[in-house]
Every structure is written in C-alpha cells, then in structure tokens.
Amino acid sequence: MSIEGGARAGLVAALLLALSALPIQLAHFFTVDSATAFFTLLSVYVAVRLAQNGGWPTTILLGLSIGAAMACRVTMATLGMLAVLAVAQRLWAARNDVSPASDVYYIPARRRLTFWSAAGMVVLAGVLSILTFRMLQPDAFVGSSFFDLRIEPRFISNIQEIGAAVNGEADSPPSQQWVGRVRYLFALQNMVIWGMGLALGLTAWLAWVWAGAQLARGMWDAWTGTGWARLQRALRHTLPWFWIGFYFTWQGGIFGMTMRYYLQLYGLLALFAGWALVRALDFRLLISDWRPRRARLYSLQAAVRWVPLVLVVALTLAWAYAFTRIYTRPHSRIIASRWMYDHIPPGSAVSSEQWDDALPISIDDRRAFDPGVGGWFYNVETYPYAEDDPTKYTGFIDQNGKPSLGLLDHLDQIDYIVLSSNRVYGSATRSPMRYPALTRYYHYLFNGQLGFEQVADITSYPTLFGIPIPDQGAEEAFSVYDHPRVLIFKKTAAYNRANATDLITGDVVWSEVYKLSSLRASRVPTALRLTDTQWDAFREAGTWAAQFNPAGLASMVPWLTWLLVLELLGWSMFALVFRALPALPDRGFALAKMLALLLVAYLAWLLGSLRLLAFGTLSAWLCAAVLIVTGAALAWRNWAALRTFFRERRTAIFTAEGLFLLAYLG
C-alpha cells in the first residue's frame, strides 16, 4: 500500500498490530474475526493498488479478497464500495491530469482508464466476489452446483436472527450488558484502552484525524487552484481513511458494540499510527536542517526525534506483555475449582447461575456434581435472568402441583454462593427498573449484610511488574472467557430468611417493576423515573428561600435587577449576532435579549444534563459570564463597525429598545 513513510511506516504498523491485545486474544480463540480482518485489510490494500495504477489482474485479486471477506462475515459485502471508489479516483485523477509535471498525481506512468474500462472492472470485481463467496460459503446456497446461486432460506433466517440480536430487537440475557452504553463512545473506549492499548489507540485515531485534515486541505487547495501537490500526497490515504470512517460510523452505532466487530479496523489504524510516527520522525530531521548546527543541540535532536516512536512502541509492548501474562498461569476458573476442592467441605451446597459456568469443574480426578462417582458438592442453580416478580423469590406451585423454588428458598439451601464471572451481576443490574429486587440482592451480597461473607476473590488480571491491571470495566467478552473474576461467598450465622426477604424484596413495589426489553431499557434505563440517588440529590438541593435571599437587592427590586441583567446579556449577545445577521435592519438587536436568555438557560441545563455541573445559580452565572466575556471581546474587535452601525441605524435601535421597555415596564 503506497503511503508516506514507505516500508518504515509499514514495518512500524506491523509491529504495533502484532502487539495489540485484542488480536492476540482472538488468535487464542481462533475466531472468524481474525480471518475477516485479514481479508478486509487485503481488500483495502488491493483497492488502493487499483486506485493508484492497477489493471485487470489487480481487479481479479480485489474480487477474490472481497469474496473471501464475505465468506467470513457477510456484512463485508460493503467492501464492494471500495472497488467503485477506486476506479472513481482513477477517473478523477485522469480527468484532472492537466497540472504541471511536478504535480502529476501518480509518479509511475499511469494507465489511461476509460469510463467503460472502469465499469468493467467494477462488474468483474463484483462477479468474482459473488463466485468466491459461493465457493467458500456453500451453506448459504440451496443447490450443490457451483453456479446455483439460490440463497438457502435458513441462511437468511440465521442472518436475520443475528441481526435482531445485534440491533437489540431480540431480547435475551446476553444483550442486557449493552443497556445504557453510549453508542460510539463505549466502542471507542474498549478499542483504545483495552483492545489496542492507550498509547497505540490514541496515536492511531489522532493520526486518522490528521490524515483527514490533510485530505480536506488538499481538496481545498485543488478547488481554489493553489496547487495539486498536497492533494497528490493526501489522496493516497483516501480509501483507508474512508473505510475506517464508514465502518466505525456504521458499527459504532449499533446496539451490541462487542469489541471483536471492530477488529477489521485494527490493521488500518495501526498503519495510520505507523505513518504518523514516521512523519514525526522525519519532521524532526527536517528541523535539524535549518537550526544552528551546534553539536550538543544536534545530538539532542537526534535523540528527541525518536521519543514518540519509542514511547508508543514501548507502551504498546508493555500492554501486550501485561495482557499475555494471563496465558502463563492457569485459568482463573481452574484455580477457583482447586480452591473449592481444598477449602469447601464435601457435600456442601454450592450455587451456580443460569447463563454462566458452574463451578467447580471436574479436575484432578475429582468429580464436582456427579453423585454416581462420588461427587463432592450439591449444585443449586439459580435463575437471575427470570423477570422480577414475587414468585421468583418466594417460589410457586405449578399446575401439576410440583413446587418450584425461588431465590430465597435457594439461599436457605446454599452453603456457598459462587459467581464464576461478572456476566450476570454486571449486566442484569444495568436495568434497575426491570430487576429491582435482583439489584438489591447483589448489593447486599457484596456489602455482607445478606449473611454471606466473601471468602475468595480469584482473578487473573493482566499484570505488569507484579501490578495487576483490573479490566472489569471492559466489555464482558474481553474477560469472562479467558480470565474471569471468580467470587465465592460463605454462609454465616448472621443469615436468616426474614432478614434476606426484607433486604431483597422489602422496599420493592412490584406494580412498578417495568419489564423493559434491553433496547427499550437502554433508551429509558429508569423508565423516566428518578433513581434513589437522584431523589436524594434533589431533596438535599435546598429550599427556595435558601437559594434566594428574601432580603437581598434582587428580591427587593426584582424589576431593576432583571432589567440590568437583560440589558447586559442582550448587548453581549448583540456583539455575537452583529456579523451573523447582516440582512436585518437592526442586525438582530431586537432578538438579542431573547437569544441571550435562551443560550444561557440552555447551556446551564446542558451542564446539568451531562452531569458536569448541577443546574443552579453557579451554572447560570458561569454561562452568563462566558457570554459576557465573549461579547465584550467581539465588541472590541468590531468596535469601528459597531460605531458606524449605531450612527447609521440609531433610529431602528431606539425603536426596538423602546418597544422592549414598554412591554417590560407595562
């Protein structure tokens, strides 16, 4: 792939990608995402070659690579747009090949490409991608003949089912982890902090932004006729830059933002990071050409220019080393199982949660729950994802007269509560209006009031220099499969049924339990009600008299106070709209006071809604101060124009001000 920095940027990118944590983890799992990422990167590479100077062989390779990517993940059919963009870029470059020789876009002698040749390339790439998909994914088709392209209905049904799960339309326990997650931000957070590591993640995305800025500036220079050289360099990044932006905009906005869906971007982002680091290295080399050639300063430059590259590589290597420590020790569930065999008396009742792994596992010739071969423990399975209602906790008698135990009945039986990961308590508690009693159960279990004490906390976190790096804040799948946190609680003498009932269900109003789907709960996580914490904040906010002094000047002469404030805000806002509304006779003077009130109120409300600063006197005055200072600065800058305007339009200004005072004082 032709990119500034050449082979150096490519080598740095390859090193950074190899050191990324998520590709290392998925390589251990041998998931399809690794193959998808490979063929996606290959498709983008071939598309860039086609855009630069590729011919029919390049087109054939592009069709094959897109088809292989589709066979891994059918949504990669969207790579087909790269073929269209590649030939469009070729046609555009040929059309604009009228610039001076120094600004010719392609350094090699470019093959002339006609419209019909370009259309033929797109069609050929499309046909080959379909045939490749037919060959590599035969389960998607009905017949056995290679040219039988009838789609298998079950394949369509499976794709629709998966799509419903990813989009949140199908509600299931695994989808509850996404409730309340901020679209794009959560995906970006997991990619930058955990998947790549902070140093590589930030560098890669900043480099992508930098490349976009260069592309925009180059297009502006070409549009204004000031030169083609900048665009010549920037266009090399067009297809990779576009694919990253398109794919993240698409996948970052879905409901289920699992980390592995973004693996297809890691290679390209690493490439941009390598390009930026090499550019930074070269930039420091250029500085040395015009600075004084003092020996000490030059040697310092020679060392400093390597700092960004060495720092990013070193920090990425450190994160990769820390993460791979989890593969140098036994799995945390194996450690937990051995701990249970060594510390829990045989015959004890241990709990497990539906949708999570039961512990202990049978290991070291010891059977966990098989009474026929001397099982050690009695398993009590709980059902936390059942909808919250009284029978979930107290049990019920079914239509056949068979009793079905509730969680409180299970707690009476259980000697040890085992949470083999954060899968359940990390997801179900995200819907407090759907699972109010379950949320209380975990709360009182963890703080010890339920009558169970924590006796084991078994982890296998990434570790650097002996310091563990907890990653429970990452997406669930990042930890629960290869290094889950296992918690074990032992029943104590403090446990009793009445206390457990009161703690778990005592304050729950069952008629106010909202059985919201995960998608709806994500949109309205508290069913449009204030939470207990929010209620406390409102109750402690103070009374009206406490916030507004009845004996103060504002309360004694409120009309004068408001008039002065409105005039100050209005004149400040007028300085802002003076240049923005040149078509109005008064340049927006009559609207300024209303706009000022609206702006200050909205900004103060926004600070409160984003939980940055509570809505109140402080936030209102802070926003007003920003408006006043900004208005004063603009008025100073445009003072001459304002004086001319007032001299020429004073009649309109006085009329608008008179109407305002008449309405205000009347």
Description of the molecule:
The structure is a single chain. With 666 residues, this protein is mostly helical. Among the domains are: 183-314, no CATH class; 332-523, no CATH class; 553-665, no CATH class. The chain contains 28 helices and nine strands. The chain has a three-stranded antiparallel sheet. The protein has a two-stranded parallel sheet with strand order 1-2. The chain has a two-stranded antiparallel ribbon with strand order 3-4. Strand 3 (396-397) and strand 4 (403-404) form a beta hairpin. Helix 18 (436-446) crosses helix 20 (497-505), helix 25 (558-577) crosses helix 26 (589-609) and helix 26 packs across helix 27 (617-637). The chain starts with 5 loop residues before the first helix and ends with a helix.
What topology emerges from the helices and strands here?
Blueprint: H1 6-18, H2 21-29, H3 32-52, H4 56-72, H5 80-95, H6 115-136, H7 153-167, H8 185-196, H9 198-224, H10 229-234, H11 238-251, H12 266-290, H13 295-304, H14 307-324, H15 332-343, E1 349-353, E2 378-382, H16 390-394, E3 396-397, E4 403-404, H17 407-413, E5 416-419, H18 436-446, E6 452-458, E7 463-464, E8 467-468, H19 476-480, E9 486-491, H20 497-505, H21 518-523, H22 532-539, H23 544-547, H24 553-556, H25 558-577, H26 589-609, H27 617-637, H28 639-665
Parallel strand pairs: 1-2
Antiparallel strand pairs: 3-4, 5-9, 6-9, 7-8
